[in-house]
Amino acid sequence: MTDARNTTLETHGFAAEVGRLLDLVVHSLYSEREIFLRELVANAADATDRRRFESLTEPGLAPPEAAKVRIIPDKPARTLRIADDGIGMTHDELIANLGTIARSGTRAFGETLAAAKPEDRPSLIGQFGVGFYSAFMVADRVEVTSRKAGAEAAWTWASDGQGAFTIAPGTREEAGTDIVLHLKPDADEFLDPIRLEAVVRKWADHVTLPITIARDGKDVPANEGTALWRKPKSEVGEQAYAEFYRHLGHIFDQPWTTLHWRAEGALEFYSLLFIPGSKPFEPMEQERVSRVRLHVRRMFITDQAELLPPWLRFVQGVVDTEDLPLNVSREMLQSTPVLARIRKAVTNRVLTELKTKAKDAETYATFWENFGAVLKEGVWEDSEHRKELAALLRFRSSAVEGWTSLGDYVARMKEGQEAIYFLAGDTTEALGRSAQLEGFRARGIEVLLLADPIDAFWPDRMDAFDGKPIRSVTQGAADLSRLAPLDAPEGEAADATALVAALKAALEDEVSDVRVTDRLVDSAVVMAAGGSGPDLQMQRLLRRAGRADFAAKPVLEINPRHKLIAALAARASANPAGDAETAEYAGLLLDLARVQDGDLPKDPAGFARRIERALAVSIS
Predict the structure, then answer these.
(1) Is 127 annotated as contributing to ligand binding?
(2) Is 264 exposed, middle or buried (0-12, 13-18, 19+ CB in 10 A)?
(3) Global pTM?
């Protein structure tokens, strides 16, 4: 069926962010111009892989047996063509893929580019999904002619990179894509087949799809296309590993660790996996799936087989098996026991490697700072591996510098201490100054400081470690009564009976209880969680998510040794019936407790007025 779309030339403006992005790519990455070829070749190989995968369920879409990427320099015309036999693009896909940026905006790209070292800048193009635009580093005009597999119509996208592009009917005999670069006057080097071969060898030698370069009327192979993962470890050098790792992720750092092994026996597969040495530029929360590539007998099948659980999604690499058919379907990928066994074996192998690496605290700290928050997701959602993951967790602490483990914490526990205590919040710096810690510090009890969003969740699933319950300090106030402070508290405790009654009456709609506490030293008040509800950090997250109906009312605790509480207690005793000022002070105390815990007052404007009135009274 032919496309009945209007056959006249269409002109479109780039999405706003593309124009700025083109300027950044062309001018800020000018010294690394050769990477444009890496990006275009990688895109061509990916398009062919996608076509092969689609053909598993639609055999008519299968690419030619001799599918390859062809690089064709034309010196007289001063053009460079990159042609593939891939999935191709429709009219609308050309506009969507080449006229907008779906994954990353200019702001993030620009900020990261400004902060990056010059030698690290080439990695930004691949990581931000803007590889196609690198063509404008060497070309003053780019034309893309593409025909979608299964369609009869071809379309040509063209632009000079100056703010607009055109779409018109094109001509292509078979499905796939041709990208023609009209090279700039200073880009003659990329018309030289020898120079092009050197670039391919440097950046794309591990692409398993054949890559050829037209030279003297012949297509000359330009890459080895070696299945590196099938080679014995003894035959692969560190440089080869690094180049393949960079090819997989379009990044330029060194892998933190490399796992290369062959599984033999009832289940046979080859695997080459990498844990990156740095965080990706794009947040890992955007897509919680593993992208490890599945191959069958060297042939790429999919990167959507979810060979690792979501909490190991930072791992990159390849798994290649003989135990699945080449025409494996999507349904089979979900249900076959072979793949389930492979998933289990690969997950266990990665965990074993992490356990080994964790013995070197300094080396492991690098990994933890990059991916610890992701690994903690496994404690929340994966009961099978929860115990193993617990030993891999690392935390900041109120008692020691650097990172510490749960095992180290238990070894330092105070005599008579029954639980492992933690405090969750937004930043470790704020947590370290929290009033919540005062009573624990006074008793020499260490508290773990948890500042990742996932920290509000996982402790509920792993309620104990080494036989010790794990408890939030906002829920552990009662435990302190069993342990004496290291030093006797200063000052006498005021009789706050009347004050407690007055505060309960004034705050009955805001709190579940008001009580005297001995876990404060310097602060007048502190919030605590109710006996059966979630801890305070979880309640804050619920309110921020608009789920206040699920957040229990907190408890307000007061320090009877604090001068402010003592003065208010005396006032309440003298006036048991209470007055308007007592209610005012009650609201002020509750807001002070909220602010101390990193929350906003319920009524910020009202809080400000209360502070102003209190200051005016104290000054006058």
Answers:
(1) yes
(2) exposed
(3) 0.70
